[in-house]
Amino acid sequence: MTVHTRQTAPRAVTPEAIARLTASVLGAEMDPSFPARIETVFQRSASTRPDAVCSQDPLASFVVAAAHVGAEIAASLRQSCGTAAARPLADRLARAMGIDPGISADHERIVETVADAIANGNEG
Question: How many CA atoms lie within 13 A of 91 on its CB side?
């Protein structure tokens, strides 16, 4: 008798966890206050959906929105390709968020960090 084992997909990481992990990484690289700024975005909004986020901090709001959009793109990639590698995910996320190459180093770094957080499935 042959026993078939089914590989399970990587555990889903919530957009909130993705945003927090991204803020932690970027806090070390860009601005130590970034994690607190992300929490402020969460507190200001009753919902953390990207269309509901309203903040006086556009860069922190962008992280939260990118985490949501990135999670949706990753789910789609996993369904169609079986995986969501960081580079293709970052490319699709940048397009979805309207980030053209070379337009903003900060936004490009955010997209890369969000994609890495999702692809590696780490919650920090």
Answer: 5
pLDDT tens figures, 51-97? 544 557 889 999 999 999 999 999 998 888 888 889 999 999 999 99
- Assess contact for 27 and 38: CB atoms under 8 A: no
CA atoms within 13 A on the CB side of 116: 14
- pTM value is 0.79
- Which pLDDT band holds residue 124 (cuts at 50, 70, 90)? very low
| DSSP states of 71-111 | HHHHHHHHHHHS---HHHHHHHHHHHTT--TTS-HHHHHHH
Planar angle of CA 79, 6, 122, nearest 5 degrees: 60
Residue pair 45/53 in contact by the 8 Å Cβ criterion: yes
3-state secondary structure at position 30: coil
Amino acid, single-letter form, for residue 29: E
